[in-house]
Amino acid sequence: PLALGLYTVNAVYGDTITMPCRLEVPDGLMFGKWKYEMPNGSPVFIAFRSSTKKNVQYDDVPDYKDRLSLSENYTLSIKNARISDEKRFVCMLVTEDDVSEEPTIVKVFKQPSQPEILHQADFLETEKLQMLGECVARDSYPEGNVTWYKNGRLLQPVEEVVVINLQKIVDKSTGLFTMTSSLQYMPTKEDANAKFSCIVTYYGPSGQKTIQSEPVVFDVHYPTEKVTIQVLSQSSTIKEGDNITLKCSGNGNPPPQEFLFYIPGEAEGIRSSDTYVMADVRRNATGEYKCSLTDKSMMDSTTITVHYLDLQLTPSGEVTKQIGEALPVSCTISSSRNATVFWIKDNTRMQTSPSFSSLQYQDAGNYICETTLQEVEGLKKRKTLKLIVEGKPQIKMTKKTNTNKMSKTIVCHVEGFPKPAVQWTVTGSGSIINKAKETKYVNGKFSSKIVIAPEENVTLTCIAENQLERTVTSLNVSAISIPEYDEPEDRNDDNSEKVNDQAKLIVGIVVGLLLAALVAGVVYWLYVKKSKTASKHVDKDLGNIEENKKLEENNHKSET
């Protein structure tokens, strides 16, 4: 490289400077010398080498003591390059007749340290010009330049917004420069999380280069412009008994630490931190909630609905009624939304609500009225009615001759609650018959059955007794050898009553009886018309019928 037409050697600070003598060695060379020129042009000789004696001498120059080396081809080397080595050096070759000279310019370069941003502001405030920090790059040669960047973009000076001041200080002992650039900056809210950095531009042996500092992010303070209120809840809905946590926040930095909360029913705001807790809320907590800054400058609101569910069952608890009585039942619901209501009896869901115009034993049981709000998790209410249907014992006795014609089955059909105790007695001895068999007690009904083979006419008595009453009914049973009309056994013995089947059976019996009576009437009329001679026998039969009627009336009185 050439500087002003002269040969130039570029050296790095601290390295070795190598300067070849760019002259051709002439014939008759006596010696070679190196010198440098002072600023005023006066020469200072620093090295000598004889071509004949091959010896080297270095002049007593303090700046170059123990730093010089002159080779046989007259190349001069200077160790540990300094800024002060930046001079004009001259190689001289001397013969008897001539002195030849060739100058060399030495340029020394020093890379600065990585720039650092020092004296950083603790935070920045919007709408305020303040010192952001100082970018310092040390020990540069020649001097460098410092520029500032925000998010990778160059910051240009803007009055009252971006103010940059660059200072360059040289160390007199080393000749190295330290560059310090201060940045005053007026931030905006958008500068939150912005990355600020600085770059030093310097020259090296190979040209211009740059070094960048580590980026720095500043906490930007700005006032609150908006207040927001939130309801913190684990569920999307709130019900009675829940806790409500209100949170108020401002979008400033730093965020406000205190707020005023306005609660329904409270005239003045309640001063609190950014959260306000209400425990075990009731339905009267439903309403509009607000919060504001302590100076009431900004406000936000939200509406809270506290869901509730009330259930009133009438009657409820344990209720005892008599069979045949009416019992109105009502399940009244009051809720914040439409509720679903259903009934359960003895763990089985009912299709309709219970209604009792005439209580029967099968109506007894445990009734549950339950209601829920499907949209509100966990909001469910239920109440229970334990219905007890009591009744005095009712008895109906039937008899039936068994198919073997050797015995008869007597059944005592009993209704009542609490369950009656049944005893059997026989006419004469009055002894208790213990061989009776009972069916299962269901819906207040059961039957007690005995099998007998009477050798003579007997009267059986069935006694049913509970806490309400003692009932006694008797039935005359003929000896097994005496023919009589057996009474059919009540088909309810199995206690599996089917209302529809009973109705059909009753209708069938009535129709059958009517048809039988009609046929009997027609036959009787024909018989009377054709057999006048049989009138005496008819009179006799009618007399027997009268006797039988009297006998049945006596038996009925005895049974009663």
TrEMBL record:
<feature type="domain" description="Ig-like">
    <location>
        <begin position="223"/>
        <end position="305"/>
    </location>
</feature>
<keyword id="KW-0812">Transmembrane</keyword>
<keyword id="KW-0677">Repeat</keyword>
<dbReference type="GO" id="GO:0005886">
    <property type="term" value="C:plasma membrane"/>
</dbReference>
<keyword id="KW-1003">Cell membrane</keyword>
<dbReference type="InterPro" id="IPR013106">
    <property type="entry name" value="Ig_V-set"/>
</dbReference>
<feature type="domain" description="Ig-like">
    <location>
        <begin position="393"/>
        <end position="473"/>
    </location>
</feature>
<dbReference type="Pfam" id="PF13927">
    <property type="entry name" value="Ig_3"/>
</dbReference>
<dbReference type="GO" id="GO:0002250">
    <property type="term" value="P:adaptive immune response"/>
</dbReference>
<keyword id="KW-1133">Transmembrane helix</keyword>
<dbReference type="InterPro" id="IPR007110">
    <property type="entry name" value="Ig-like_dom"/>
</dbReference>
<dbReference type="InterPro" id="IPR036179">
    <property type="entry name" value="Ig-like_dom_sf"/>
</dbReference>
<dbReference type="InterPro" id="IPR003599">
    <property type="entry name" value="Ig_sub"/>
</dbReference>
<dbReference type="Pfam" id="PF13895">
    <property type="entry name" value="Ig_2"/>
</dbReference>
<keyword id="KW-0325">Glycoprotein</keyword>
<feature type="domain" description="Ig-like">
    <location>
        <begin position="103"/>
        <end position="212"/>
    </location>
</feature>
<dbReference type="GO" id="GO:0007155">
    <property type="term" value="P:cell adhesion"/>
</dbReference>
<keyword id="KW-0472">Membrane</keyword>
<dbReference type="InterPro" id="IPR051116">
    <property type="entry name" value="Surface_Rcpt/Adhesion_Mol"/>
</dbReference>
<dbReference type="InterPro" id="IPR013783">
    <property type="entry name" value="Ig-like_fold"/>
</dbReference>
<dbReference type="Pfam" id="PF08205">
    <property type="entry name" value="C2-set_2"/>
</dbReference>
<feature type="domain" description="Ig-like">
    <location>
        <begin position="324"/>
        <end position="386"/>
    </location>
</feature>
<dbReference type="GO" id="GO:0030424">
    <property type="term" value="C:axon"/>
</dbReference>
<keyword id="KW-0966">Cell projection</keyword>
<keyword id="KW-0130">Cell adhesion</keyword>
<keyword id="KW-0393">Immunoglobulin domain</keyword>
<protein>
    <recommendedName>
        <fullName>CD166 antigen</fullName>
    </recommendedName>
</protein>
<dbReference type="GO" id="GO:0030425">
    <property type="term" value="C:dendrite"/>
</dbReference>
<dbReference type="InterPro" id="IPR013162">
    <property type="entry name" value="CD80_C2-set"/>
</dbReference>
<feature type="transmembrane region" description="Helical">
    <location>
        <begin position="505"/>
        <end position="527"/>
    </location>
</feature>
<keyword id="KW-1064">Adaptive immunity</keyword>
<keyword id="KW-1015">Disulfide bond</keyword>
<keyword id="KW-0391">Immunity</keyword>
